[in-house]
Amino acid sequence: MSPLLDRRITFERQGAGRNALNEPTGAWAGIATLWAARTDLSETERAAAGQIGAVRVARFTLRRSALAEGPARTLGPADRLRDEGMIWNITGVAARGPWIDVSAVSTGRKEEA
């Protein structure tokens, strides 16, 4: 059964540029906007440093195509994606027949702080 590709997601990559501490300073730029299906896998709360935060884990499924294959070949943990304004950090990319699965986590933030 085919997943319902019902949302537009944008893959982003941080531009070049480093500060004196070798931290990335470049702006995030979109590398592709594609149709995808989202499957929520888990939602948990965690306490760290006296603060409680929510963490969501999801899998985004894309149809394998020339456009999806280009960015998907180079996607990795340094990249992220946007879905409905939320930022998702990419944790893994896997090809599965005619589909590409992108695993990602989000803390629910809408914009970069």
Can you lay out the helices and strands and say which pair or pack?
Elements: E1 7-14, E2 28-48, E3 51-63, H1 66-74, E4 80-83, E5 86-96, E6 99-106
Antiparallel strand pairs: 1-2, 1-4, 2-3, 3-6, 4-5, 5-6
Could you characterize the architecture of this molecule?
With 113 residues, the chain is mainly beta. It has a single domain (7-106), classed as Beta Barrel (Thrombin, subunit H), CATH 2.40.10.270. The chain is built from one helix and six strands; from the N terminus they run βββαβββ. Strands 1-2-3-6-5-4 form a six-stranded antiparallel beta barrel. β5 and β6 (99-106) form a beta hairpin. The longest helix has 9 residues, at 66-74. The mean pLDDT is 81. InterPro entries: Phage_SPP1_head-tail_adaptor (IPR008767), SSP1_head-tail_sf (IPR038666).
Quick overview:
The chain is mostly beta strands and 113 residues long. Helices cover 8% and strands 58% of the residues. It has one domain: Beta Barrel (Thrombin, subunit H), CATH 2.40.10.
Helix content percent band: under 10%
Can you identify the CATH superfamily?
Bacteriophage SPP1 head-tail adaptor protein
| Overall 3D form | globular
Extended strand count: 6
Low-confidence stretches: none
> Could you tell me the mean pLDDT?
81
Strand content: over 45%
N-C termini distance: 39 Å
Number of domains: 1
Q: What is the gyration radius calculated from CA atoms?
A: 15 Å
CATH topology title: Thrombin, subunit H
Structural class: mainly beta
CATH architecture: Beta Barrel
Biggest β-sheet strands, sense, barrel = 6 strands, antiparallel, barrel
SSE order = EEEHEEE
Task: Output the CATH class name.
Answer: Mainly Beta
Helical run tally:
1
Major sheet: order of its strands?
A: 1-2-3-6-5-4
